[in-house]
Design goal:
The longest helix is centred in the first third of the chain and has 19 residues, at about 70-90. The chain has helices at about 25-40, 70-90, 105-110, 140-155, 165-170, 180-195, 200-210, 215-230, 235-245, and strands at about 1-5, 10-15, 45-50, 55-60, 95-100, 100-105, 115-120, 125, 160-165, 175. Strand 1 and strand 2 form a beta hairpin. The protein is built from nine helices and ten strands.
């Protein structure tokens, strides 16, 4: 199941399916639905996702579900794709607090987030080829963009598991936290997001994604200028400038 709560401008999502926080189609549909609801709630500026307990972020899918049933497998992987694409395209900033093993679909969930913080004991891998499968929750597409083609091939094609220190070195995560401190670090990042114009952040995120999605550079640059001017249609642009000039914190309305 996916538990969630909202505190201030941050939503906290917890994958809670003991013992290894594995995904089910129902959980994935619930995640997709929840992301849609949070998208509609303009008071949410960031979301932090983590796993219940101290050992697993998520071990991915329960492999027993893939034991030769092609029809069910098609349904399951469609749920993976829809849920993680929704997470990738969320209006708000998404932060994964990787509090343990993130394997297969567990790591793919992290890859779908904007930022990743791994606790020092975390282990990450995409081991699907070792059981006759492949990472189809956007993993083959998202991993190379973070770590480059070489390390993506090394992780997927040789089934190499990486620890937190290696993940930081290759760009898979942005920060390593002490054991038990990942959620606090992710919450602090979310608090930083809340000091910025929500609409400006939303536009910036979409522009960055345009670049990675192969939008031609000339078109991307033109859209960047258009989005800059679009900000002037909302009150937060004037509020931000005035707050800076008046040396005070801005009061965002996110209208």
């Amino acid at each position: 199941m996916i538990r969630h709560r909202i505190e201030g401008h941050t939503a906290f999502l917890t994958i809670d399916n003991p013992p290894a926080n594995t995904w089910t189609p129902e959980d994935l549909r619930a995640l997709e639905k929840l992301v849609g609801e949070l998208n509609a709630d303009r008071s949410v500026y960031a979301a932090v996702i983590t796993g219940a307990g101290e050992k697993f972020f998520s071990a991915g899918a329960d492999l027993k579900k893939f034991a030769g049933d092609k029809v069910y497998a098609r349904h399951f992987i469609a749920c993976f794709g829809s849920a993680f694409e929704a997470l990738m395209n969320a209006r708000f900033v998404t932060i994964a607090a990787i509090n343990g093993y993130a394997m297969g679909g567990g790591l793919e969930c992290c890859l779908a987030c904007d930022l990743r913080i791994a606790e020092s004991h975390a282990q990450m891998a995409l081991p699907e080829p070792g059981v006759g499968l492949l990472p189809a929750g956007c993993g083959t597409q998202n991993l190379p963009g973070l770590v480059g083609e070489g390390w993506a091939k090394r992780m997927i094609l040789t089934n190499e598991r990486v620890d937190a220190a290696t993940a930081l070195r290759i760009g898979l995560v942005e920060e390593v936290a002490d054991k038990g401190q990942g959620l606090a670090k992710a919450t602090a990042l979310a608090a930083r997001v809340a000091t910025l114009s929500p609409r400006a952040v939303e536009y910036c995120k979409s522009l960055i994604h345009n670049a990675r999605n192969g939008i031609p550079r000339r078109a991307g640059l033109a859209l960047e200028r258009e989005r800059f001017m679009d900000l002037f249609d909302h009150s937060d642009q004037l509020e931000g400038v005035n707050a800076f000039l008046e040396k005070r914190a801005p009061a965002w309305k996110n209208d």
